[in-house]
Queue: 2 jobs
Job 1
Amino acid sequence: MKRILVIIVALLALGVGAVAQEGYVPTPENLAARERFAADRFGVFIHWGLYAQPGRGEWVMQQQNIDYREYARLANSFYPSKFDARAWVRAIKAGGARYITITSRHHDGFSLFRSAATPYNAVDGTPFGRDILGELAEACREEGIRLHFYYSHVDWGRTDYWPRGRSGLGTGRPDGKEGDWQHYLDFINRQLTELLTQYGPIGAIWFDGVWDHDAEPREAQPAIWNLYGQYALIHRLQPGCLVGNNHHLDPFPGEDIQIFEKDVPGENEAGFSGTAGVSRLPLETCQTMNHSWGYNITDRAYKSADELIRYLARTASKGANLLLNIGPRPDGTLPEEALARLEEMGKWLQINGESIYGTQAGCIPEQPWGVTTQKGNVLYLHLFKPQPELTLELPGKLKSAVLLAEGTTVSFKQKKGTVTLTIPDPAASTADQVVALTLR
Ligand code: FHN
C-alpha cells in the first residue's frame, strides 16, 4: 500500500494524468462511433497467444507458477501453420457478429503484433514471423467488420512491472527496487501508439487488469495506471476509437463504453460485477462459449447454440452488446465446436436479426417466457418457451403482430391496456421465437 501511494504521488508530481479526461467531452466522431457500437449488438472475442500451446487457458502461467523466462520459450515454437485471418473473419461475419475484439497482449506479456517497444512479439520473437493483428486488420477491412483491441494492463513477465499486484506472483519476476513503474507506463503508451497507428481505424481499446491492484481504492486507480493519460492518447490518435475498461468498477471519465464480465448488466452471478452499477454508456457483456477464454484442450463444456442465441437476446434486452469468446487452437484454427455454434447463430440472426441489431432494451422487463427488445414503435417479444397464448400489458395500442421468421400474422384481442396474443405456431424447438408487435 505504502509503495503504491509513493508511486501515485510521484506520478502526480510528474504530471501524469494531467491531461485528465475528467470533464471529458466526447467528440462528435466518438459519439457517432458509440452509436454504431451500440447498434452492432454482437461481437466475437478472440483470446489467443502463446498460452494456446499448453492448451490450459490464458492463465496457465499464473496457475502453474511458470517462470517467466521459461514461459517465454513458448515463443520459439509459436508457428500456427493454419492461421488464416480471412477464414476467421468470414466465419465470424457469417455468424452474424459485427466486430472482433482480439487480445493484442494478454497478462503473459506476449504481443500478437509488430512492436518496436518489445521484441517479445509475434513478428520478431517467433519463427512464424507474421503480424497476426496486421493480417486480421486487413481481412476485417476487406470483409467490412470492425476491429477492436484488447490490451492487458497486467504483465506477469516484465521486470519493470513493480510493485506487483495480486496475480502472477509465482512467475519469478523480481519483487524489488529494480522495478520501474514509470518505465512500464511509458511502454504501454508506446504500444498503444503502435496499435492506433499501424492498423487503420480501430473500433475500441478494451483494457483489462486494473483489478490487479484492487487492494488500492477505486479513486487511486486512474493515477496508478495513468488511465487518463492513456485515454487522452487514444482519443488524440483516433477520436472515434472507443475506450472500455474491464476493471469491474463504475466507469471513469474518458471511458466510452461500460464492460461487464460473464453477466448481463445488472446481474452478478459470476461475481465480477458486485461493485459496478449500470451507467448510461453503451454496454457490453463478454462471455465464454465454454468455460475458458484461451484455448483449453480439456474444456468440452460448450453452451449449446440455442443457449447462446438466448443469451444474445437477453443481453440485447438489457440494452447491451454480447462479446462472445473463442479461443483459437495453437495451429491457428478456430475449434469446430465454436464454428458450429457461430454458424447456428448466423442462421438465426439472418432471419431474426432485426430484433437484435440496432435495438434498445425492451420496455417489458425479463419474464418467465423470455425477454423484449424494441426499435421505434416495434416491440420484439423473444419467446424462449412455446407460448400458445400470451397476455401482456403494453405501453400503447397494438396495430399488428407477426411472427418475425415466417411473417405469419398473430391474432390478438385488446382490452384496457392488455392484449392477448394467440401464437399460431408455438415452435417447441426454436431457440427464440420472435414476435414483432407494431404499436400505434
Ligand atoms: O484475467 C482476464 C481473463 O483472462 C480474461 O481476459 C477476461 C475477459 O473478460 N478478463 C480478465 C478477468 O477479469
Job 2
Amino acid sequence: MADNRMLKFVTLPQAMPPKRQAETRVHDFDEIYEAFVQPAAEAQAGRCSQCGVPFCQVHCPLSNNIPDWLKLTAEGRLQEAYELSQATNNMPEVCGRICPQDRLCEGNCVIEKGFDSVTIGSVEKFLTDTAWDKGWVKPRLPKAELGQSVGIIGAGPGGLAAAEQLRAKGYEVHVYDRYDRVGGLLIYGIPNFKLEKDVVGRRTALLKAAGVVFHMDVDVGRTLSLSTLRERHDALVIATGVYKARDIALPGARLDGVVPALTFLTASNRTGLGDQVAEFASGALDAKDKHVVVVGGGDTAMDCVRTAMRQGAKSVKCLYRRDRENMPGSLREVKHAEEEGVEFVWLSAPQAFLGKRSITGVRAIHMRLGAPDSSGRQAPEPVEGSSFTVPCDLAIKALGFDPEDLPTLFDEPSLGVSKWGTVRVDHKTLMTNLEGVFAAGDIVRGASLVVWAIRDGRDAAESMHAYLRAKASAQLAGAAE
Ligand code: FAD
Ligand code: SF4
Ligand code: SF4
C-alpha cells in the first residue's frame, strides 16, 4: 500500500509556485515564478498516485525516476530525492524551469484527466535549487584518471552533459566554443525570465571545479580546424547546435527593422549580462516605444514577444499561420504572453514588409486550415481578399533554424549529413561516419529541446566511453605482443 503521504490528488488541488503578477513582471527580466516553499512542494509531490506504469517517466526524455523522487519529497527526505533526481539529469533545475512539461512528463501524468497533473517540473526545480542552497551539489570528480583526452565542440547543454559524464569517468575533457560564455542557447537564446543566467553560471563553475577545461572564443572550422582537434584528442563530440535562421522571401524583407529572432534575443541577453551591444544602444534591436510584429509560433517566437513587452514596446503582435491548438510552442508560454499583453493574431501570415528604408507596417492575410498534408497536419491556406495591414517599427522573424553546412565549415567533406544538413550518426552509438567522432543535441536532431540535448550528451558519453575503453585495451594488447 502506498504511503499515506501520497495519493493526495483527490483532496488537494494542483498548485504551482506563486507566479508574479503580469503588471509587475513585465517591467523586469526576472523569472516569473517564485520558489516553492518546502511544505507546498512536499504537499504537491504527495498528489502523485505512484502509478505502477508511470507515464510521466515514460514521456520524460531522461526517463527520470519521477514517482520515487516525488515520494521522497513528500516524506521530507529532500537530499535523497535530489540524489535520485540528479542521477539521470545533469541539469534538473534547468529542465524543471524550461522543459515544456505540458507536452512531456506532466502532459502524460495519469491524474491529468480530471484532477490536473502533479507539478513535476516545479518540484524538480525546488529539489535542485534546495540542493544548491544546502551545498549538496558537488563537482563530480573521477576516482582515477584514465589517461585519455576528449574534445567537445559546443558548450550548450548537449556538450556540457557529455563533458560532465566523461570527466566523472576519468577523461581529460576540453570544451571548445565560439562564444565567450559557456551555455549555448541557455545563455544567449533563452531569456532571463525563463532561466536566470546565474543558474547556468553555477553549473559552469561546477564543471570547472571538476576539471573540465573550457576554450572559449574558438570557432572550430574557422580559428581551429577539426583535423587539429582530431589529432589532439582521442575522441570528439560535435554538439554545435543549429543556428542558420530560416528566412522569408517576401517584399521588404531587407528593410531596416526586419531582424532575425536570435539576433534580437542575443542582443537582449547580452545587454542583461552587462555587455555593451552597439545595435541595442542605437535602438536598432531595442523594442522600446515600438510597434513590434513577431512572425512564428514556436518557443523562439514566444521568447521574442515577451522580451519585446519587457523592453517597453508600444504594442506586440504575434502572427501565426495556424491556430492556437496547432502551434508548436508551449501553450503555457502563450498564456504567460497573453497575460503580459501580447496580442496573438492566429491564422494569419505576412505577405510583405512595408516601408521605404525602414519598416513601417506589415501586410498580412488571414489563413484557414485546409486538408491534412502528408504529415497529417492541416495545411494552412490563404483566405482570398482578406489582407490587412498592421503598423510595425520592428519585425522579428522567428521561423526556425537549420544547421550550418558542417562538412564545408569543418573542411571535412566526408562527414555524413542528412538531407536536412543535420549530422548523421549511428543511432545506437551516436558515432558519425568519422572514426571516434560522435555527435549530440540539435546538430543531430534539428532544433529540439534542452532535455533531449542532455539525453544525447549522456548517451554519446556512454558510447564514447565504451569506444575508448576498447581502444585502450587494443593498444595494451598490441604493446604486449
Ligand atoms: P546549443 O545550445 O545551440 O549549443 C551549441 C554551442 O555550440 C553554442 O554555444 C555555440 O556557440 C557552439 N558552436 C556552434 N558552432 C561552433 C563552432 N563551429 N565552433 C565552436 N563552437 C560552436 N528548449 C527547451 O527545452 N525549452 C525552452 O524553453 C527552449 N526555449 C528556446 C528558446 C530559444 C530562443 C531557442 C533558440 C531555443 C530554445 N530551446 C528551448 C531549444 C534549446 O535551447 C536547444 O534545443 C538546446 O539548447 C540544444 O542544445 P545543444 O547543446 O545541441 O546546442
Ligand atoms: Fe519533466 Fe523535463 Fe524534468 Fe523530465 S526533465 S521530469 S520532462 S521537467
Ligand atoms: Fe505520479 Fe502522475 Fe507519474 Fe503517475 S503519472 S507516477 S501520478 S506523477
